[in-house]
Amino acid sequence: MTADRFSTHDLELGDDIVIKRYTSWHRGEPHREWAALQLLAQHAPGLAPTPVRATLNARPPTIMMTRLPGRVLRGEHATDEQICAMAAALNRLHKAIPTHVVAAVEPAASCPTVAVAKARARADQHPDLGEDPRVRQAFQAGTAWLSSANPDKLTTNPLPPVLGLADGNHANVLWDEHEGRVRFIDWEDSGRNDRAFELAEVCEHISRLDGTLEAEQLLAHLDMAPSEAERVHEFRRLIALGWFLQLGPTGPATPHNPVGTLERQADRVLYLLG
């Protein structure tokens, strides 16, 4: 069975254990997840499922881990309590693992260099985004920003790297109302990453349109220097644009999102670029 409607893997749910069987592993997803779970169990226990056993070279690869209580935040209107708990979990995640340990971790599947290249490649293809004036305005503003030097500045990280999910899907955020805390699941894209990029991923993943999680409120609770806050804002522009460019009538993200998502994302792009 699957855990919820956002899952892309086969899950067998027991009372205390989850067995995850991968339907895709060409990017090393099982190895990434197993490595992340082991690091988290050592340095930040309780923030993610505890790894139990893995058969990484089987077909399909399989990981057994503990089952965590709670429900995913995707599709919910996040409360002040949930947002504070999410910020606390992110602060812990990004501080708990020593920098020298993170430095030895494989780079995340999605990172600034990859995201910049993908966004520019999609813009260069001039995707069909329809004729809505607001959408066309967002495309023009977005391509102008992508053509500037600003995205290139994001590919060099002046701060220590962190272990990150590299996936801002709010379906990866698990809320435990009994303990009033947040944990993170689905680490198959994880790895060493830029913290500002990771925070922007949480703020601007397309899943934000399925429910409500106020980005500014979340960011206000995070420990950041002004220079890092500015990098987060620039990354939010990049990630919002990346999703926008996939939402035309034949875009790869269109089948997974409701009617009107393109127009809403156009407004988001213009807001962030304003």
TrEMBL record:
Organism superkingdom: Bacteria
Gene3D superfamilies, per the entry: 3.90.1200.10
Domain Aminoglycoside phosphotransferase: 18-223
Family annotation (InterPro entries): Aminoglycoside_PTrfase, Kinase-like_dom_sf
GO molecular function, one term: transferase activity
Keyword Nucleotide-binding in record: no
UniProt KW Transferase keyword: yes
Keywords attached to this entry: Transferase
Protein name: Phosphotransferase enzyme family protein
Organism: Nonomuraea jiangxiensis
Phylogenetic lineage: Bacteria, Bacillati, Actinomycetota, Actinomycetes, Streptosporangiales
